[in-house]
Amino acid sequence: MIDIAGLSKSFGTRVLWQDLTFTIEAGRMLALTGPSGSGKSTLLNCLGLLDTPTTGTMSHNDRDLTRLGARQIRIYRRDTLGYLFQNYALIDNATIADNLGIAIRPARNRDSTRPATSPAEALEQVGLAGREKDIVHRLSGGEQQRVALARLIVKQPALVLADEPTGALDIGNTHMVINTLRALADSGCAVVIATHDPLVRDLCDSVLEVGTSTTPTPVKELSAP
Ligand SMILES: Nc1ncnc2c1ncn2[C@@H]1O[C@H](COP(=O)(O)OP(=O)(O)OP(=O)(O)O)[C@@H](O)[C@H]1O
């Protein structure tokens, strides 16, 4: 569904990655690994149309994403993408319900046939049942991450982009994140995760070593003896 061809990114004379050529398919999970500074977040930002690649093309269902105007980019982000970033990207001074309500709107516009999950059901799935009226900035970091997960469950975006989603979490919340991302993939979302966490990497279907490889390797091949 997302076709990447000859993608590269440089800052000045510094080449972060080049000639990336692969497909991100619905229902699959791709891990982006590599040392700090190799350009994992930058690649996620390019996939999320928050940054632009230096050369190459990205297309979604044959629609060229590198040629969209500002308004089309906003609509694509709203209707197609879900972010799970380290700062949770929530509206801090609003309630959990308000944060999830924002996620519902674009889902209504999508041509999706997937069954909708209500905010109440999504909160139950992440262990926050009945907490709709809580203000987000009063929640712990782990709870905020779970609200961000609930937002993804409600929105069911075609493409989920996650940047170190377990970096600051305890083991319980880490498993919550991993299980939810796997469930999103199983329901048809494509999931791309920048991670240093071997637990997360091993859950994915394939791994791209950013800055070193140009195509992902199936996880099965990595773990083969
Ligand atoms: N706008 C920019 N201008 C110049 N350099 C930048 C810019 N954005 C990022 N970089 C540099 O690009 C490199 C890659 O950054 P990026 O955050 O993508 O790496 P990363 O692999 O995600 O690292 P980490 O694992 O530490 O999060 C870094 O050296 C960073 O300083």
TrEMBL record:
SUPFAM superfamilies, alphabetically?
A: P-loop containing nucleoside triphosphate hydrolases
Which GO molecular function terms does the record list? ATP binding; ATP hydrolysis activity; transmembrane transporter activity
The highest taxon in the source lineage is Bacteria
Q: Which UniProt keywords apply?
A: ATP-binding, Lipoprotein, Nucleotide-binding
What's a GO cellular component annotated to this UniProt protein? plasma membrane
**Looking at the keywords, is Cell cycle present?**
no
Ranges for the ABC transporter domain?
A: 2-222
**Which SMART domains does the protein's record reference?**
AAA
Keyword flag Cell wall biogenesis/degradation: no
InterPro entries assigned:
AAA+_ATPase, ABC_transporter-like_ATP-bd, ABC_transporter-like_CS, ABC_transpr_LolD-like, P-loop_NTPase
Q: Name one Pfam family in it.
A: ABC_tran
PANTHER family on file: IMPORT ATP-BINDING PROTEIN
* Official protein name in the record: Lipoprotein ABC transporter ATP-binding protein
Where does this protein come from, organism-wise?
Streptomyces niveus (Streptomyces spheroides)
